[in-house]
Amino acid sequence: MFRRKLTALDYHDPDGFDCSDETQFRNCIVWLEDQKIRHYKIEDRGNLRNIPSSDWSNAFQKYLQDLNCPFGAEERKEAVDWLLGLAVRYEYGDNVEKYRNCQPLASGNSDKAVDPLLNLDSNSPDFKAGVTALANILKIQRHDDYLVMLKAIRILIQERLSPEAITKANQSKEGIPVSLEKHILGFDTGDATLNEAAQILRLLHIEELRELQTKINEAIVAVQAIIADPKTDHRLGKVGR
Questions:
Q1: Residue in 211, 212, 209, 178 with CA at minimum distance from that of residue 196
Q2: Distance, C-alpha 106 to centroid of its chain
């Protein structure tokens, strides 16, 4: 889960790092702050550098809060992965020219579109931790099937967080003029002003109902896209080759 990011950051032992080992974990956090992130001034890193201290966990929790990390100290894997991602971004920002001309490795099957979900090991602890971290960031409800959760994450990103979706959401909606005379209220309050206000409220309510129906339809389509996938619905696929 961490090897590639640690390797990119020139960590001394990316293959041997064990997040569950308390000493390795604390040393890695201190190394990230000292060498890559550098959020604190040197004189303010004392509590974090005091690795044997019984109060280190509190210092780490405060560190995460100061960085606005979405994970707490108890979510160790997710927090480490987030910190590594932050460090990679800082490393790139400090060496833009160095990485600007880097070319991606050529792939012999680059012309074939392959669903990345097909090659994932859904039982891997790293896979589960990564999906859980994404679900927490995107506020997606957890599910017992991690592939279902990953599919929901992909749908959310494609429909809500893609450049096209963001552009569409940022576009202001232009209102359409409506003639109140064409919409019969069905009752009379005895006051022309109140009658007009009631007509406006009714039209606004109808608009809200239409928006709600649209969201319901989108949710139904999203759920159908998940359960109709052979990868997430065993009834549509077959086991083995």
A1: 178
A2: 28
What tokens does 150 get?
């990953």
Rounded to a whole number of angstroms, the CA Rg of the chain reads 26
Give the pLDDT confidence of 110-163 residue by residue, as tens digits: 445 556 666 677 778 788 888 888 888 888 888 888 888 888 888 888 887 777
How far from each other are the two terminal CA atoms of the chain, in whole angstroms?
Answer: 28
Q: Which residue has the tokens 């927490």?
A: 136
CA atoms within 13 A on the CB side of 166: 4
For the question of whether the overall pTM of this predicted structure is more than 0.70, the answer is: no
Phi-psi region of 175 (alpha: psi -120 to 50; beta: other; left: phi over 0): beta
Q: At what angle do helices 125-138 and 76-94 cross, to 10 degrees?
A: 80
* Cα–Cα dist 8/90, whole Å: 12
Q: For 84, what's the count of Cα atoms within 13 Å in the CB-facing half-sphere?
A: 23
**What contacts 158, CB < 8 A, 6 or more positions away?**
165
User: Which residues, other chains included, contact 67 with Cβ-Cβ below 8 Å and sequence gap of 6+?
Assistant: 37, 39, 83, 86
Distance CA 13, CA 11 (A): 6
Task: Return the structure tokens found at 147.
Answer: 């592939």
Cβ(180)–Cβ(199) under 8 Å? yes
